[in-house]
Design a protein that fits this description.
Number of strands: 16
Strand order of the largest sheet: 4-5-7-8-9-10-11-12
CATH class of the largest domain: Alpha Beta
Strand content: 15-25%
Distance between the termini: 46 Å
Number of domains: 2
Shape: globular
Bound molecules: 2-keto-3-deoxygluconate, magnesium ion
Structural class: alpha/beta
Largest sheet: 8 strands, parallel, barrel
Order of helices and strands: EEEHHHHEHEEHEHEHEHEHEHEHEEHEE
């Protein structure tokens, strides 16, 4: 069996997605996601110019060997562009293998560990009252876990505050727009949101919050401590994690559970965090961290330290990643939660899929493969449109972490 051809499809049904389609000489094809928000064309080129030529003629069943070929063989390891390109190939190859076996992907990973996958949705508002209302909206839809973000008085466009109730799209301009940040103001305000949410909804729902890399370790420790009475499911990205040791300081001061990893590419980004038990949830995902082949390695390592998974699932990860993630979540023994930001109807139409949401859980389908396809004719109707994530600046103009 051989890889006969492969192509990259760039489409923008409301937002940009990069998709890889690998075709075999036996008529079976596989689909992979290669989207890198705001840097989409770099992965498209990496695949088209440097990966696809070497894939032609290879045996698509040799998933591990092809992974090693692309990782070790490039010499230049890691990084978001390389690892997303590898992830796209890996997803497509697992899709092909599962289709050939006539099985849903989770069966090949080791079979079902649970009936459904608990997901969390994004509730946000311009102020506390609006966020409380938004959380109520998710509660009414049946969610068991909800991430809550709120505008902060005095901060221009604080992170996570979207415009609609259901959809939030941070990459919103053809050049990065400028948002503001002020840690003091956020530290005064965020605990009040969770106090209000617990007063309104009680303690039966899981609540989550994303610090989006904005705090220093000391400030993050302070926030974690102030949030303790509200028993969060997790506090995410409380401080940047390039320096994994930074989490020691946070950990020493708070028992609020910590999650990190949506921007991680490999096991090396989280090795110290996991083996020193500095986090509770690892947010690495199929797309970000080199596909299923590498993500399952991270998850197995994390399981030794009772760290559970919490895959990134924002809208800039296409339905292909969501499908793969749900198969992974259905299998992985140390599952924690799955993020689920809904795609628009336009996006869903371009990527027909068989996963579904019901009463706070998501279910991958039983179709052979990962269950997500691409309608190429429809995709062609939506040409690429440059769109960038915002940047953040402090009041005095200093660049900060977005
Ligand atoms: O989903 C989250 O937790 C995020 O922080 C979303 C990110 O900002 C988004 O994926 C960036 O592309
Ligand atoms: Mg996040």
């Amino acid at each position: 069996m051989k890889i006969q051809s492969a192509k990259v499809i760039v489409t923008c049904p409301g937002r940009n997605f990069v998709t890889l389609k690998i075709e075999t000489d036996q008529g079976v094809y596989g689909i992979g996601d290669a989207t890198l928000n705001g840097r989409e064309l770099s992965v498209a080129s990496y695949l088209e110019d440097h990966v696809i030529p070497s894939l032609i003629g290879m045996d698509p069943r040799r998933i591990e060997d092809i992974w090693q070929y692309l990782y070790r063989g490039a010499y230049w390891r890691r990084g978001p562009v390389t690892m997303r390109a590898i992830a796209a190939v890996d997803m497509a190859l697992w899709d092909i293998k599962a289709k050939m076996a006539g099985m849903p992907l989770y069966q090949l990973l080791g079979g079902r560990s649970r009936d459904g996958v608990m997901v969390y949705g994004h509730a946000n508002g311009g102020d506390i009252a609006e966020t409380v209302e938004a959380v109520g909206f998710y509660v009414d839809m049946g969610y068991k876990a909800i991430r809550a973000q709120t505008g902060v008085p005095g901060i221009k466009d604080a992170y996570g505050v979207g415009r609609g109730k259901l959809y939030y799209e941070p990459a919103d301009a053809s050049l990065p727009s400028v948002t503001g940040w002020d840690t003091r103001k956020a530290l005064n305000h965020v605990p009040k949101l969770f106090e209000e949410l617990r007063k309104t909804f009680g303690f039966d729902y899981h609540l989550l919050h994303d610090g989006h890399h904005r705090y220093t370790p000391q400030e993050a420790a302070n926030l974690g401590k102030m949030l303790e009475p509200y028993q969060l499911f997790w506090l995410e990205d409380c401080t940047p994690a390039e320096n994994q040791e930074a989490f020691k300081l946070v950990r020493q001061h708070t028992v609020t559970p910590l999650a990190v990893g949506e921007i991680f590419n490999t096991i090396w980004d989280c090795k110290d965090l996991i083996q020193n038990q500095l986090i509770d949830y690892i947010r690495a995902t199929v797309l970000g961290a080199g596909g299923l082949t590498h993500l399952r390695r991270i998850a197995d390592f994390a399981s030794l330290y009772q760290v559970r998974t919490g895959c990134h699932g924002a809208t800039d990860l296409s339905p292909v990643t969501m499908g793969c993630a749900l198969h992974f979540d259905t299998w992985v023994p140390n599952f924690g939660i799955q993020e689920y930001m809904r795609h628009t109807a336009e996006t869903d139409a371009v990527f027909p899929h068989d996963y579904r949401f019901e009463a706070g859980l998501m279910y991958c389908g039983e179709a052979p493969g990962h269950g997500v396809d691409i309608d190429e004719a429809l995709a062609a109707r939506y040409p690429y449109k440059p769109a960038y994530l915002p940047v953040a600046r402090l009041e005095d103009g200093t660049m900060w972490n977005w």
